[in-house]
Amino acid sequence: MHAYRLVKGPGREPAGEVTERAGKIAMGKPSIAVLPFSNMSGDPEQEYFADGISEDIITGLSKLRWFFVIARNSSFGYKGKAVDVKRAARELGVRYVLEGSVRKSGNRVRITAQLVDAATGNHVWADRYDGDLADIFSLQDEITMKVVAAIEPRLLEAEAIRSQNRSPEDLGAWDMVMQANSLFWRMTKAEAERAISILRQAVARYPEYGPAYSMLAYSLLVSGYLGWELAEADTTQAAALAARAAELDDSDPWAHLALGFSAFVMRQTDQAVEECRRALGLNPNFAAAHGYLGWALAFDGRSEEAITHLERAMLMSPQDPQNAIFTTGLAAAHYLAGRFSEAVSLSRKALQLRYGFTPGHRIYVASLVQSGKTDEAREALSRLKELHPDLSIAWIERHVPYTAAAMAKFVEGMRKAGLE
Predict the structure, then answer these.
(1) Which residues in 154-169 are b (16+ Cβ under 10 Å) and which e?
(2) What sign has the CA pseudo-torsion 212, 217, 220, 223?
(3) Residue 307 belongs to a domain
(4) Is 119 found in the same domain as 21?
């Protein structure tokens, strides 16, 4: 798939692109326009900064495969004008509009942004950012990253709400994926099962729609990691689904993330790292790809690089329901680097986020004993065995995808705590 881009003035588009757009909108993808941010400072020099922020956000959003993003040439037709959001959306043929402003005071600048559902006039998201103009390009990059990372989940949530009250039989491909997406990220076993069922229907009904394959693969893998479901046959199926998603659309970062995740589960660590890096090459603002890249690096003992990516994932998406996984990855990275006290603190935080996540319990046990807290470690191991009665060293060596040197360090901790 290629991002749909307008190249004429507002409300006009070449005939060839009309045909392309019509075919894609049949799948239901929404579109978004980023209007040029207003310069509220009265300083002509800030005009370039405001335009740069707008253009960078357009570029960042265009890397998200979930949405059509109207090109700069069209949205900048509204620069310097008093804009009625509903009218602009109608003229550009979009569902959502992002608008904002830049205000300078001394050497400080404040950027505000708000995302509007043009059909209802409701605000989907709004935020403001303050920064120092000493390094204007660094600030521009930081604001772009934060805005793009914040907008994606809010748009997906808004789209899911649109499809909530409709049965799967009445939904198109896009709507089915959005309904499943909304259910899955509530992060309960029952709702994950419903989401996977909808995604299986979407794959059957729309066999050429790549996002259904990548989301189904990803949902199966995350479900397995959370302990809900994932037999070995499901791992193989997830890898095949991810491969099919990439075959249908090799520029879909979710497809490459799913390929990376499935490779990690199958102990193909180098391939997992390569696919996660490819996902980030397609979308540098992809928080989950940073997180699972960090996870794979942590399990390979590449602690410092892992920590960089895991911390970036949580900075970009601080409310992400996957942060229990990423925090556990941070704990593992510190453990393997010999920083056991930090690992204890981080694994406790992971368990506060998601008590039932057994990998968090495992690294907590190992970290406690290696930091000299043997009695606490044995108590923690007892609690872990209540969640995972058949846990053993042999089970870990078979199922937990540490590479050889990292596995030896981890198993050492578990043996010290009393696991056989």
Answers:
(1) ebbebbbebbeeeebe
(2) negative
(3) no
(4) yes
- Strand, coil or helix: 354: coil
304 domain residue, yes or no: no
pLDDT in tens, 99-116: 999 888 778 888 999 999
| Contacts for 145 with CB less than 8 Å, ≥ 6 apart | 60, 284, 285, 316
Contact 182, 157 (CB under 8 A): yes
The closest alpha carbon to 294, from 276, 310, 270, belongs to 310
Q: What is the dihedral of CA 368, 369, 375, 379, to 10 degrees?
A: 60
CA distance 313 to 297: 14
Closest CA to 66 of 192, 254, 197, 237: 254
pLDDT in tens, 281-307: 988 888 899 999 999 999 999 999 999
Its pTM stands at 0.76
Q: Give a yes or no: residue 4 inside a domain.
A: no
Sign for the CA dihedral angle at 369, 375, 378, 382 comes to negative
Q: Dump the DSSP string for 229-243.
A: ---HHHHHHHHHHHH
- Return the SS3 of 33: strand
β-partners of residue 99 are 114
- Backbone angles phi and psi of 315, in degrees to 5: -70, -40
- Is residue 256 within 8 Å of 275, Cβ to Cβ? yes
Separation of alpha carbons 152 and 316, rounded Å: 11
Residue 155 is predicted with a pLDDT of 80
Q: Tell me the C-alpha distance between 251 and 255, whole Å.
A: 8
Q: What are phi and psi of 388, to 5 degrees?
A: -135, 80
Taking a C-beta distance cutoff of 8 angstroms, is the pair 134, 107 a contact? Answer: yes
Domain, as residue range, for 362: 316-420
